[in-house]
Amino acid sequence: MRDAVTTNKQRRLRAGVFIALLALVLAACGTGGAQDSLSPASERATSIDGLFRFTLIIAAVVFVLVQGAIIYTAIKFRRKKGEEPRPVKQIHGNTKLEIAWTVAPALILAGLAVPTVQTIFENAEKPVDAIEITVTGHQWWWEYEYTDLGVVTANEMHIPIGKDIALTLTADVGDVIHSFWVPRLSGKRDVVPGHVNTLTISADEVNLFLGQCAEFCGLSHANMRLRVYSHEPADFDAWVESQLAPATVDEESEGWELFVNKGCTACHAINGTEAEGGGLNPGPNLTHFAQRDTFAGALYDSTTENLSDWLANPSEMKAMRPDLNRGMPNLGLSDEEIAALVTFLQGLS
Ligand code: CUA
User: pLDDT, tens digit, for every residue of 201-229?
Assistant: First the structure.
């Protein structure tokens, strides 16, 4: 009786493990993921993807050959029922074999190195006639400065299709290492305090591409997301123009009063106002905040509800350490003040 129970339990456990493994394997078949590096949307991402596929094919051939040999040998030479154990032939010190299994992998690796190094060098080439953007990683959001165009924005990058975008990536001294990654547009690049790295991205199609910080950078690493919107060139030009327009700030409004008096200007800049240039602690430039779909490291949609919750208690929406100047502090605002500030923010078009 007891044995029957155990067997049932074991059977159920085995079925559970099998289903979990099956789910895991089937999950790999999903396509169309927003961060799927296997569906590249740029020249460089396509070359990286091609290299991956080439490597995968070689690895698959090696896997099949080695596993096939193991399985064949195990079946062919297994001890039959009732057969006496027999001594195994020792092949230690077989020079020919040892040379063979040293040379074969060396040749495979050398063969892989050629296209790998080629792809790395091609992708590292400095693009000509590119749009230059300085990307600064902060705990825990991204700052984009279009150095030639004079646009500064946060988390959401806008680019024209079919044009190289030359990124210069860095972080402030005193910050930590981040990593910029938009899987469908290019490879990853570390963002190191006090050091400059470069990465070129581009997009072949009009779309929204998602990315995120790919280097553990503390409490809200997982909440340090980013978006790249690609546009037809004319639409991109229109976006740039709208970004260069002065902020629409009603300096008589209650929201503006609060923005200045509650200390928001210590971190956030609004171009063309007395809050221009921002303060000592960098927070996102809010000049055209209402043009953004998301906020807080592209973590939340910019809805009235989310913005209100955020102003009421930012750390509850996203793990941060405002006491260490890492993230937005709780300003102890009343419901009326929050409503006025949200209206003000939504008016920054
Ligand atoms: Cu920034 Cu992880």
Answer: 999 999 999 999 999 999 999 999 999 99
Distance between Cα 179 and ligand 1 center (Å):
6
Residue nearest to atom 1 of ligand 1 (CA): 178
Task: Give distance in angstroms: CA of 223 to centre of ligand 1.
Answer: 8
C-alpha–C-alpha distance, residues 201 and 79, integer Å: 59
pTM of the predicted protein model: 0.85
Residue 298 Cβ inside 6 Å of ligand 1? The answer reads no
pLDDT (tens digit, 9 = 90+) per residue, 2-13?
556 667 888 899
Ligand 1, residue 220: give the atom nearest the CA: 2
| pLDDT tens profile 51-87 | 999 999 999 999 999 999 999 999 998 888 888 888 8
Instruction: Establish whether residue 138 lines the binding site of ligand 1, counting it when its CB lies within 6 angstroms of any ligand atom.
Output: no
Ligand 1 within 6 A of 169 CB? no
d(CA 250, CA 242): 18
Q: How does pLDDT run across 152-175, given as a tens digit for each residue?
A: 999 999 999 999 999 999 999 999
